[in-house]
Design brief:
By secondary structure, this protein is mostly beta strands. Helix content is about 10%, strand content about 40%. It folds into 4 domains: about 15-90, Thrombin, subunit H (Beta Barrel); about 90-300, Methylamine Dehydrogenase, Chain H; about 330-370 and about 380-400; about 405-425 and about 495-710, Methylamine Dehydrogenase, Chain H (7 Propeller).
Length: about 725
Amino acid sequence: MSMERQFFIKDSHNKQITAIGYHPARRVYIIGFEDGLTKTMEVDTGQVISSTQLHSGWITDYFYWAESKLFFSSSNDGTIIAWGTAGSAHEIFGLGLPIYAMGFNSRKNLLVLGVKNGVFLFALKYAFVSEENDDIVKCIRCNESRVYTGSYDRRLIIYDAYYYPGDVGLKIVTKVNAAHDAGITSLEIFSDNENNTWIVTGSFDKIVKVWSQDGKVILKHDAFTEAINDLCYVQRSKTIWIAAGSPKANLFDPKTGEDVSDFIGTFQNDDYEGENYIITSLMYVHEMNTVIARKAPILMFTGTTKGEIAKWEQLQANNFTYTKEIYNYSEATSKLAIQLMEKQEEDCRKVYNVNRERFLSSISSIITTGDSNPSRQSFSPSILSSSSSESTALNRVRSSNNCAYIKSIFIESLDDLVIASEDSNIYVWGFDETAINLLNNIDPPKDAGLVERYSVLLDANSDLLKKHGSLQADQESVNNRVAGFICKFVLTGHTGCVTSLAIVERGSGYDTTYLISGGWDRKIYVWDLEAKKLHDILRGDDDYSNNNDELASDGIILDIEYCKERNEFAYASSDRLVYVRQFSSRGSEMRLVNVLQGHDGEVTQVRWCALHQLWITGSEDGTIRLWTADGISYDTVLNAHGSVAVLCIDQINGCILAGVQHAIRVYDPEYKTLVQTNYGHKDSVRDIIHIHERNQYISVSWDKTIRIWNAYKKRNM
């Protein structure tokens, strides 16, 4: 018996989902978000019925008390809210410390709360605290008179709850100190047909275990490549659903430990091609025979002055921790050295071919004319060896001490991370396609271990995965794609620091993806990212062979922005001007449309605001100017009270974010006023991005910190 997808809700909110629940009396789903918002959705259609925001922190858990018909929600702001059947708040309780999980013992009417270092037990008049843990208690389940807890300190503890007049407490029945090799992220209790009770746990160690009541391991399921995000027992099919880094749940029989995903058509009947999410939470609603799931967070990339790229990912089972992965500058320079070596060898082959033609021509002349003393012609058939070419290339790379990354752009359509560097190069990082091709050609009987080890790099339809019975879920999520990131190629051509990048994607009317770059050499380069080569340069005539490159400005180029609606790009310069040009794939046809003139200092930033159809510029003169789309006149001048180092546009409400020294100022272009100021950085803010899925601002600074801020919300939105 299989289950099928009922509906899929996209863009439920611009914040991450942190809790899911079901209200049987009202027959609605309750969804909680990290900003404290609670949304009520109809069970049949998923339509939002109401939205309420009473919590000030992340909502962490829900449960329903059937006897009193109350629905409870908890948050890391230290509060618990009891909701009535009408959907209004019945009462708010303040615990004073973050709450991470809740459970309810219906037999004795006891409320169990998971906190840091232990659990709280509440009766109607009494409270009891058990401090048996050293870390956050993430999971709580209640069954009959027993309470089951799993925590990040790897402990699985089974309590027996007692409640007598004047006395309430928890007595430890079973305690497993090292239930897993890492923190426990999920826990489920279920009973079989013979009325035996089993415990199932999942962990960061990528293992699912089935336990008996006395704390003995019955089964161990370790066929996962990612941490276990969540699990639930589906009574209808008598299977355990496991969320582990995939848009599909893994299904297995808890009695035999066998993976039965291929025998139950739940996820085989749907096409998951191109899905860019992974399941991170699961909840089974017994009354509805329904499973609810939520998707995964987003990745962030940062670059440093040492040439390192850091990838940051919020843990899928923990909203409070980020993982960090470093990509070193040495890998990028090694790729550059190989490219330089290949170019030198190609140049040598060209010289050899030219000299060979001259030599043959000379011999032909001797045979034809009989001249025994022909004029000497240069002939040098030697070719540099691979070792000497590589050595020369490496010396050229190592001679540069400027390895700081200045600008980066992630291109979702290509899965490429493009980074501009101070060493005059542009490094393109992406998915290791070569490794995929190599894996597709290996001998399956001999290399089964390689298939298993690198299965994350293979496509879900790969024959190798089918032969080895390890068909993976679709790996189209950003999280899994990054696992195989390498430096794919290096774009060389600039003669100075590269400061600016802009992307022209296929959706703009072109048959490939173009990259526009500029920098200290005052030239505009257009690169074909799909062909991995230089396409053209801004030049004064149509004769490319003359190399009549045109200087784009009198000063160095500090920023570039492309406007898809107008097919124009603007670049800011240290000469106090902003130049707007028509974009074309031909360098000689990038016509100058207008020049934005008015700043009294170097123009450091230029942005296009699609919502208000304005060009936005920032300068060292301490002003932000708003220009009409045609660039003929400026609409408004905003005083930033300091040099503007970075600009960002809020994609939801069109507000302007300005990094001014160590502060982030938010301006509303509609009312021309400062509406929000964020303080926290100790040094100059260097970059800001807006994550519209979460409605958050993320900033980086020279104080070596990354900060995440709540985005500004207009009252009428």
